Amino acid sequence: MGVLNNLSTLLLLSLLPPALSHVVEKFSDVPQCKKFFLEGTTPNLTGILVGGTVQDQKRYKLICQKYKTAYRFATLYDTTNSIPVFSAYTFTGPPTDPRPDQPWMIEPQLNRENNSPEMQKDSKEIEYQKQAGDNDYSNSIPIKGVNRGHLFPCSHAHDLDTQKSTFTLTNIVPQVVSFNNGRWMNMECKVQTTLKLNCKDANDQIKAYVVTGAVPSNNNTLNNRVNIPDLMWTAYCCETSQKGKWITGAYWGENTNEELNKKELVSQTLSELYKKLNEHYSDVQVFPEKCPKGDILRALPLRDGDVYDHCVYDDDCVCSSVGVKGYYLPVVLVSVLVMMM
């Protein structure tokens, strides 16, 4: 009888799904991780990720980013360059809390497969072989002029724990300080406003799918270990309140000093983004076919016209002033001027 009971137990265990792991073979292996991709469809980057399968299993790792027992977003990580290829997440509204003072974290399972699936606080005593550590960014500003640039930005995380989860170094690339704090941050805030005002799911809740990536350089590194990318890009797709109508948008910018390139990042189509990324990869596709490649939301449908299209934002994406013909005016004053027109 005892043997039968043991056999029954083994049979039952064999029918259970595999234990959820932080580093996975496919994002689709974890239902809570699959949801960060529209229709569960992951991006295609020939030679790296095709049909949801990593082409070089030793170099590239799929991370279901787990923090405080919940999956927060998904990352494709390049262990050779020690930077993410992209991070994918769902935008469900702007943060409800101020930016947290959060210690930097790492992915334990990149060090050893049977480590905890929860991201952990970085240890400054260890040099990680397959990922960047906080020590790699020591003196990064005076030496290389770069700081820690989020792919999934804290300003796009709706709740406090998800905000904190973005502070894993597997979500970070070395980004030129003036670019990170200038045009790129302004773009992130503009996208936040766009998604907040235009994206609604079947339950009339804010929801958009976003993928943000970095194209590595040939030989520009931080601490002789961490690649400093040449190009950063982002794309979004969402359904609008007009059910069945989907909108998309994309941005990219060279990771260079703002003094060399002060031109504002402008919204592009998916087709334009694919063309740009195909200079570095091939057969790129970020979203499934229902996301229009050529259509784009060129102007924000705001009550105040396009006031927020020219904002100067603070770290919490609050529009403090608006550029008007070379001048910066308080946003309230500009809103009054627009209403008087």
Using brief descriptors, characterize the structure shown.
7-stranded antiparallel beta sheet; 341 residues; alpha+beta; globular; ENPP1-3/EXOG-like_nuc-like; 3-stranded antiparallel beta sheet; signal; single chain
Briefly, what is this?
It holds the Pfam family Endonuclease_NS. This protein is of the alpha+beta class and 341 residues long.
Describe this structure in words.
The protein is an alpha+beta fold. The chain is 20% helix and 26% strand. It is built from eight helices and 18 strands. The strands form six sheets. It has a seven-stranded antiparallel beta sheet, with helices on both faces. Strands 16-17-18 form a three-stranded antiparallel beta sheet. Strand 14 (231-239) and strand 15 form a beta hairpin. The longest helix is centred in the middle third of the chain and has 16 residues, at 183-198. It is globular. The termini are far apart. Residues 69-287 form the DNA/RNA non-specific endonuclease/pyrophosphatase/phosphodiesterase domain. Residues 1-21 form the signal peptide. Keywords: Signal. This is Endonuclease domain-containing 1 protein-like. Residues 70-280 form the ENPP1-3/EXOG-like endonuclease/phosphodiesterase domain.
Q: Please tally the helical runs, counting DSSP H or I stretches of 4 or more residues.
A: 8
Order of helices and strands: HEHEEEEEEEHEHEHHEEEEEHEEEH
Helical coverage, percent range: 10-25%
Arithmetic mean of pLDDT? 85
| Largest sheet entry | 7 strands, antiparallel
Counting copies of identical and different chains, the oligomeric state is single chain
What is the 3D shape?
globular
Trace the largest sheet across and list its strands. 1-4-5-6-11-14-15
Structural class: alpha+beta
Radius of gyration: 21 Å
User: Which range does the strand content fall in?
Assistant: 25-35%
- Through-space gap between termini: 87 Å
Protein name: Endonuclease domain-containing 1 protein-like
InterPro entries: DNA/RNA_non-sp_Endonuclease_sf, Endo_G_ENPP1-like_dom, ENDOD1, ENPP1-3/EXOG-like_nuc-like, His-Me_finger_sf
Domain ENPP1-3/EXOG-like endonuclease/phosphodiesterase: 70-280
Keywords: Signal
